[in-house]
Amino acid sequence: MKLMKTAIAAAFAALCIFATGAAAQDKTEITIATEGAFPPYNLTKADGTLDGYDVELAHYLCDHMKIKCTIVAQAFDGMIPALNAGKFDAIMAGMSATDKRKEAIDFSISYGSTGQSFATLKDSDLAKLPMKGELFSLASNEAGARKAVEEMKPVLKGKVVGVQSASIAARFIDEYLKGVVEVREYKTTEQHDLDLLSGRVDFIMASMGYLKTAVEKPSNSDMIITGPRFQGGFLGAGSSVGLRKSDTALKAKFDEAITAAKNDGTLKKLSEKWFGFDLTPQ
Amino acid sequence: MDLPFLYETFLTLISAVPLTLQLAASAIILGAVLALGLALCRLSGILPLDWLARAYIFVFRGTPLLVQIFLIYYGLGQFREVRQSMFWFVLRDPYWCAVIALMLNTASYSAEIIRGGLLAVPHGQIEAARACGMSRLLVFRRITMPLAIRQALPGYSNEMISMVKATSLASVITIMEVTGVAAKLISETYRAVEVFMVAGAIYLAINFILTRFVAIAEYQMSPHLRQPASLRDVPAAEAR
């Protein structure tokens, strides 16, 4: 009897050592979450498979890190709590590394930066917004950005803007155009496109990369990009891989892989394929 | 438990309660009118009306409310004809789209509840009323309808409660009612558990008050189940 007890205790102790040993080791398999509805970052193809800049880059990064990755589609607005709850190990969904998000999770270095801009309908009076295509950085030229917003205010007064809920575009509108425009918040960017086309909102604000593909869709032929482009500051340095704060080893691996992708021209190649312009963060 | 955060969340969410109540009230009232019409169609004995009501109830009871909301809001808005029609000033507004979807949905369920109530009116009571010389309309107003309402009320209170909760789906078409505001708070603070707990408590409180009102209405409508007031306080000696 005593022998058996000792044997069980020994087996249990061995199990504990084995379990902690496994946890301390590097992960060989991870799950990456993307949205699958935010082209060209990530999209769901007609056959149900995922594709896009995030997805192709994820495959490259995983190959580089020699980790087996499973990519799953998730709703964008619950991604951060789900990451912390351990539903998956990384987020690659065109997510910008903002200070607010950094309170909850950790981010890799940036893998692409496009800035935020506006879109409206061809026959709208907002199609002639001033400073079309000009770039203002909230980080290095905050005064210039503020001046640009002031110049737009008379045209935008009383208009309805559509933004994705809890996006950095929503925060931009809240900080710079509060009280000037009426805000409607949508779960996905495709929904505010639909409402722009049907005339429920007068203009939308979203990432330049997203807008560029949105206006090229045949169903969105009446949509055009307008006004200046903003980046930096709380708009973020660009898209980064979202990771749990405890996964420091995984973050180091992603950082190293992204730097490699930057140096060997993969970021440039993939961003030109999906966006039509170079997104490599400088 | 972070009490100041819960309190702050409560204050933010409570400001959205009027919109939730407004949505639920307009959907329930408009839905009840439509439901009565549908129930009467079902019982009219006129075949085309009966089948029209059957088809309506089949479609709206058999499809998810979320799908109905999406179809009415995004679906109808895609057609140029709808956008140029006179209905667009209503359908353009997310609020009215939500009211229409909720109303159409609740009407299909309520129609069957009301039909059940009407069918459960004892035949003898109607015969007695007819024997007293009441016209069909008077019988309906005085006998059938009050009895039907009394009998349908417990079932209908279920439908009212589920409508209050169903308003939460309106958040998917940009309406900032309690759940919409809660979802926004969560994506800003990433504290899903606390925010949803407060939101759940608010719905619970609304439905608690609603069920109290239904209980009062039920009490008022069933004097036959209570002891007559005049006899209750009379001493036994005097009653003889």
From TrEMBL, chain A:
<dbReference type="GO" id="GO:0042597">
    <property type="term" value="C:periplasmic space"/>
</dbReference>
<keyword id="KW-0732">Signal</keyword>
<feature type="domain" description="Solute-binding protein family 3/N-terminal">
    <location>
        <begin position="29"/>
        <end position="278"/>
    </location>
</feature>
<comment type="similarity">
    <text>Belongs to the bacterial solute-binding protein 3 family.</text>
</comment>
<dbReference type="Pfam" id="PF00497">
    <property type="entry name" value="SBP_bac_3"/>
</dbReference>
<dbReference type="InterPro" id="IPR001638">
    <property type="entry name" value="Solute-binding_3/MltF_N"/>
</dbReference>
<protein>
    <submittedName>
        <fullName>Transporter substrate-binding domain-containing protein</fullName>
    </submittedName>
</protein>
<dbReference type="InterPro" id="IPR018313">
    <property type="entry name" value="SBP_3_CS"/>
</dbReference>
<feature type="signal peptide">
    <location>
        <begin position="1"/>
        <end position="24"/>
    </location>
</feature>
Automatic annotation (TrEMBL), chain B:
<dbReference type="GO" id="GO:0006865">
    <property type="term" value="P:amino acid transport"/>
</dbReference>
<keyword id="KW-0813">Transport</keyword>
<dbReference type="InterPro" id="IPR010065">
    <property type="entry name" value="AA_ABC_transptr_permease_3TM"/>
</dbReference>
<feature type="transmembrane region" description="Helical">
    <location>
        <begin position="20"/>
        <end position="43"/>
    </location>
</feature>
<keyword id="KW-1003">Cell membrane</keyword>
<feature type="domain" description="ABC transmembrane type-1">
    <location>
        <begin position="17"/>
        <end position="214"/>
    </location>
</feature>
<feature type="transmembrane region" description="Helical">
    <location>
        <begin position="195"/>
        <end position="217"/>
    </location>
</feature>
<keyword id="KW-0812">Transmembrane</keyword>
<dbReference type="GO" id="GO:0043190">
    <property type="term" value="C:ATP-binding cassette (ABC) transporter complex"/>
</dbReference>
<comment type="similarity">
    <text>Belongs to the binding-protein-dependent transport system permease family. HisMQ subfamily.</text>
</comment>
<dbReference type="InterPro" id="IPR043429">
    <property type="entry name" value="ArtM/GltK/GlnP/TcyL/YhdX-like"/>
</dbReference>
<keyword id="KW-0472">Membrane</keyword>
<dbReference type="Pfam" id="PF00528">
    <property type="entry name" value="BPD_transp_1"/>
</dbReference>
<keyword id="KW-1133">Transmembrane helix</keyword>
<dbReference type="InterPro" id="IPR035906">
    <property type="entry name" value="MetI-like_sf"/>
</dbReference>
<protein>
    <submittedName>
        <fullName>ABC transporter permease</fullName>
    </submittedName>
</protein>
<keyword id="KW-0997">Cell inner membrane</keyword>
<dbReference type="InterPro" id="IPR000515">
    <property type="entry name" value="MetI-like"/>
</dbReference>
<feature type="transmembrane region" description="Helical">
    <location>
        <begin position="55"/>
        <end position="74"/>
    </location>
</feature>
<dbReference type="GO" id="GO:0022857">
    <property type="term" value="F:transmembrane transporter activity"/>
</dbReference>
